[in-house]
Design a protein that fits this description.
This protein is mainly beta and about 240 residues long. The chain has one domain: Clam (outer membrane lipoprotein receptor (LolB), chain A). The chain is built from one helix and 14 strands; from the N terminus they run E-E-E-E-E-E-H-E-E-E-E-E-E-E-E. Strands 1, 2, 3, 4, 5, 6, 7, 8, 9, 10, 11, 12, 13 and 14 form a 14-stranded antiparallel β-sheet that branches. The radius of gyration is 17 Å and the shape is globular.
Length: about 240
């Protein structure tokens, strides 16, 4: 993924074309970094197949369940592995993970860390229109793989040592890329959301695939870590 920054001073209108539940209009809840008040009663339950990549090729597949609460900036991910159950929970600034002690380092699922969980949740929420937008800054336009984006850096996200940048396509206004920058390690985790599908129960489009990349400090290229392929959704 090649990135070409530019100093062009262009302005893009941030579109918030979102509906949820019974078509209630959404308002921003600044208490959580990915929150919208209109999604308070929306819980999205998704079953997915996660592919882990080793050396650039797919090496392992795992089934996971994701429970996403956009208004709370929360996601609860579980994976049943041969050695036991892994679980990752993010709610605002709070993050917890657990897994079988004997396998957490060796199992492919052990690659999932806080930044990856943040990237999955942010890519899902942003592409579906669920995110707070009252406190943002807009750096210079960026060109990625030949496509122009307007970066939108979220403010007051509350997650320690982390900055989150949404990337909005100049062409169609979609937000299909997010950057999660760990300011302690200087690593950048990228989430790419695509293959949007209409989720009637939530009243919005949601991504059916999310690719996760990582660029370690000092590296010149992104490394593909995993892909989330959502197979089914429900919402209430």
């Amino acid at each position: 993924m090649k990135i070409y920054p530019t100093a062009m001073a262009l302005t893009v209108v941030l579109l918030l074309l979102v509906s949820a539940g019974c078509q209630d209009s959404l308002t921003t809840d600044t208490a959580a970094p990915h929150a919208v008040a209109g999604g308070n009663e929306i819980t999205i339950i998704a079953h997915c197949l996660v592919t882990y990549y080793h050396g650039g090729s797919a090496g392992y597949f795992s089934e996971q369940k994701h429970i996403i609460r956009p208004a709370l900036g929360a996601i609860d991910m579980t994976a049943g592995e041969p050695g036991g159950t892994f679980r990752w929970q993010l709610a605002g600034a709070s993050y917890e993970s657990s897994g079988p002690a004997a396998t957490v380092a060796a199992a492919p699922a052990g690659v999932i860390d806080r930044d990856i969980v943040v990237a999955i949740l942010t890519a899902f929420n942003a592409s579906a229109g669920y995110y707070g937008s009252e406190s943002v800054t807009k750096p210079d336009m960026t060109r990625i793989d030949g496509k122009w984006y307007q970066p939108i850096q979220l403010g007051n996200i509350g997650i320690p040592s982390t900055t989150i940048t949404l990337l909005q396509s100049v062409q169609d206004g979609a937000i299909d890329l997010v950057w999660v920058h760990n300011t302690q390690t200087d690593a950048v985790t990228t989430g790419r959301a695509y293959n949007m599908a209409w989720l009637k129960a939530a009243g919005t489009f949601v991504p059916t695939k999310i690719d996760i990349f990582r660029r370690e400090a000092g590296a010149t290229a992104d490394k593909k870590i995993l892909q989330v392929h959502y197979r089914s959704f429900s919402a209430h």
